[in-house]
Amino acid sequence: MEISKRPQKDLQEDGLMNFITNFVRKTGVIFEFEVRKIVHDPVEVFVRLVQPILWLVIFGSVFTQYKVIPTGSTSYRAFITPGIMAQSVLFTSIFFGIAITWDRDSGILAKLMVTPTSRGAIVLGKALSAGVRGIIQSIVIVLVALALGVTFDVPPINILGILVVIVLMSTCFASLSIFLASFLRNRERFMGIIQLITMPLFFASNALYPIEMMPWWLQYIARGNPLFYVVDALRAFLISNDLSSVPLDLGVLFLITVIFTLAGTWGLKRLME
Amino acid sequence: MKAIKVKDLSKVYGKDIRAVDGISFDVDEGIIFGFLGPNGAGKSTTIKMLVTLIQSTGGMAKIFNVDIKKDPSAVRSMIGYVPQEISADSTLTGYENLMLSAKLYDIPAQERKTRIDDILEIFDLKDRAKDMVKTFSGGMIRRLEIGQSMLHKPRLLFLDEPTIGLDPSGRKLVWEHIKRLNKESGITIFLTTHYMDEADLLCDRIGIINHGKISTVDTPKALKELVGAGNMTVKLGFSADVKDALQFLTELLKGEMESVTSLDDGKWQFMIHNVTHNGPKVLTMLLANNVEIYDIEIKSPTLEDAFIKLTGTKLSEESSKASWKSVKGRRRTYKRMG
């Protein structure tokens, strides 16, 4: 076996264009192998579905029957289906930092980081794979909702919109999780903090009830909650087909995702120190 | 050209935890260079700085004349690195692990398959390539990891404690691979270890490191000679001539023989430089003087002796603490797999 006698610099010659191609390709590689892991062991994706389905079946049944929450002409179960989708994706992607901490404690992360691969590509590739989990979960949730008698009248173009929202959202929260993991190196503490922030995120959003039902101050908080924009967009695409607020939802979501991905990249470097 | 050039390199955590405390050394191209020291001596920290995983807080280091701080990505494409911890992904197959590395190292698509097949061949992993890594033995995982880091044909390979946690046969196999890589492809290897036998067997040069500082860099032979005399203990039959013979011997081997001490039970201890060479001379001389010999025991100076002499600490004592740490680390890994 021979060794090459020159630095293989030609492969990453300076220049923005090269950087971008390389970044996109490497993101794709990291993403590909994360997806392979899901294929090898899909059980976990489905285990995480148990909780959301219980919400839909039990919580949904009770509240649908007594019409406690005013949801207009849509049934309550139809109303919370996008909310439960968002919850399911949130709860999966927000724990991504744990996996990264495992990869750090073993040498897996170090091994990735000594290759000529941008740190951002590692974070983005892993975070995007959370989107695949999110999509699988969302499909199952829609199927369960159909089985429970919810009807959807969704134009095909909206499905594309739903996929975009789920991928953005997964990337957003998975990156946030990586960022948080760089501060909370102790896994038990990390779990605690994550529990602590997911509940308020979920309840201070429009996932289970319209925000008009909230006291005024909570409405303000809800509008600062990324999950609000996710659920709003999902509900527009999946239930109401009233797309007037979608551009704002997507814009906000995209911006937060970019910010969190950058924070996650910074966190990844920090995690190694 | 020097493969590695390090000057006053240091890493300070917080205010004054000096993990690496201003070390300087060079590594010539083509050799196996070892860092020997107990866990916590700063070996891994040094490697992590050299492979651009963490930032140094002082000094400078160059890999083939490229500054690690100025152009980390050029450094990354020239080196391979196998961390101390398990770095192959247990949730992927052996082949997938290699493919992941091949893609991340920018190996052109048409070459990937041949390179991976070569690696599988070299490291004896061919028939297990399609299996999940979690079913591999420790030795196989290590071989796979070294293989992953060789895919892009690096000029310099960093191995952090390459045989930690392996059983004796696994260690031997990994040693053979390391030697062969170095011999056949001329790749420079930088490794760290807290095993004396490993350093002695593999390394052309050894840097002794303790508490973040390098005390000496030299060949294993020179380090052992530094200790001076080895000892030979011989049980002799009683003879009136013993004293005379010993007197004669001491004069003959002047400068080589440090002392002769009578122990009980007819045993004599000779402290001699270059004991494996001079010991037989002593024996021949004794026989020529009609002294009967019943029992001999020769102990050459070891790297352990050199380490004690240079640092004032026993390597094995400190590493017993370390092995508790690594056991804890391994348990974590099992917990994850289980």
Describe the structure.
The complex is a heterodimer of chains A (about 270) and B (about 350). With about 270 residues, chain A is mainly alpha-helical. Chain A has one domain (about 40-270). Helices cover about 75% and strands about 0% of the residues of chain A. Mean pLDDT of chain A is about 90; it is low at about 5-10. Chain B is of the alpha/beta class. Chain B is built from twelve helices and 14 strands. Chain B has helices at about 45-50, 70-80, 95-105, 110-120, 140-150, 170-185, 195-200, 220-225, 240-250, 275-290, 305-310, 315-335, and strands spanning about 1-15, 15-30, 30-35, 60-65, 65, 80, 155-160, 190-195, 205-210, 215-220, 230-235, 255-260, 265-270, 295-300. Chain B has a six-stranded mixed β-sheet, with helices on both faces. In chain B, strands 2-1-4-5 form a four-stranded antiparallel β-sheet, covered by helices on one side. A four-stranded antiparallel β-sheet of chain B has the order 12-13-11-14, covered by helices on one side. In chain B, helix 3 packs across helix 4 and helix 3 packs parallel to helix 5 (about 140-150). Chain B is elongated and about 80 Å long. Residues about 315-338 of chain B have low confidence and may be disordered. The interface of A and B includes residues 12, 111, 113 and 115 of A.
